[in-house]
Amino acid sequence: MQVFAVEPGALQLTWGHLPRGQVTIRPNNQQPISMVHDGGPGALVLQNLKPGFRDLEVRHPDGVTRLSAGIPEPPRGEELYRIATISDLHLGSGNWGALRTIGDIAGDGSEHYDLRCASAAIAEAVEWGARLLIIQGDAAHHRRTRDFDLVGELVDRFPRLPMLMIPGNHDVDNAWPIDVPETFGKRALPMELHVDVHDLPGVRVIIGNTTIEHVGRGTITSVASDLLEAAASSSTQNLMALHHQFQRFPIATYWPPGIPSREGRPFLRKLGRLAPDTLVTSGHAHRHRARRVGPLLVTETGSTKDWPGTWTGYRIYETGMYQTVRRVAAPSAIAWTEHSRRALLGLWSPWSPGSLQDRCVAL
């Protein structure tokens, strides 16, 4: 049991297994919050929490657990907008794990874990208040017609939610000799193959394609000048969404490789000079990390479909942004992602989530 996410006024509590029964949370001797849990893994969001340190007493069928969490102060000024991102959906994937030996265990059999996790993530982001969704690449597991059809089916489930989408390396791999569709679903959602810019209340959203045809690693070279121009010309702060992460060192120290440091370091230094009020976020590695590069906040966020199974929210304020990462809480999704933590002989379990400060952080 842990506090998985915090944000101004709220936190998400998650657990890997509890027996069926009542769960009661009492934050700092305030009015308790109760739910009846059906058993297994689960999650609960606490709202209307004041900033500051909070002690949580959780009574459940296995006993009492005591936790602590710091509820952050919001950036100064009015909250103007909310944006959600999801990454690495891998629609059309088979089993999970290094040897693909971890099979689906949850759901009613009508949908594979990849589709039901992605669909639940979007639904929960909408309930949270997202007014725009960015799909940050690897929507499809491979460059196959059936996988692209699943992407279309997913985006059509949310016809009123504005969406942006960029490709990931799996979307442009060499699994099948077909063209990547220009649009997806009946709603004709385009796949952005270069750079796109959208000005929204309090923020300029900039998305860019970092893929290389048939290659796993990424590149910033082909889009760098347009990304820099878009960020520098903004009259507000910027949220820049890419697929590949920026490698910190000349040699990739973990898998999969992202944007080489010989490209990424000069780009980030220049971006910091031209547009210091910028948050750069990426996917690709299925993990959660945050670091400061000069004035920039650079983050990596995880996959919807494997441990811990997440979506990311951005609350836009007049003077800053707050990133929060929540686990997908739908029972059939969290049951699967909890099971999937066994990958790589259990090493995936501590590696992917990062720390609370990696997931929930302010610019």
Map the helices and strands:
Blueprint: E1 2-7, E2 10-18, E3 21-27, E4 33-37, E5 40-46, E6 52-60, E7 63-71, E8 79-86, H1 113-128, E9 132-135, H2 145-156, E10 163-165, E11 183-184, E12 189-190, E13 195-200, E14 203-208, H3 224-232, E15 237-241, H4 261-274, E16 278-282, E17 289-293, E18 296-300, E19 310-317, E20 320-327, H5 331-340, H6 348-351, H7 356-359, E21 361-362
Parallel strand pairs: 8-9, 9-10, 14-15, 15-16, 16-18
Antiparallel strand pairs: 1-2, 2-5, 3-4, 3-6, 6-7, 8-19, 11-12, 13-14, 17-18, 19-20, 20-21
Helix pairs in contact: 1-5, 3-4
Fraction of residues in β-strands: 25-35%
Tell me roughly what share of residues is in helical segments. Answer: 10-25%
Give the class from helix and strand content and strand pairing.
Answer: alpha+beta
Q: What's the SSE pattern?
A: EEEEEEEEHEHEEEEEHEHEEEEEHHHE
* 3D shape: globular
Q: Please report the number of helical segments.
A: 7
How many β-strand stretches? 21
Overall pLDDT metric: 95
Sheet of most strands: 6 strands, mixed
* Separation, N- and C-terminal Cα atoms: 28 Å
Low-pLDDT ranges: none
Spatial sequence of strands, sheet with the most strands:
10-9-8-19-20-21
How big is the Rg? 20 Å
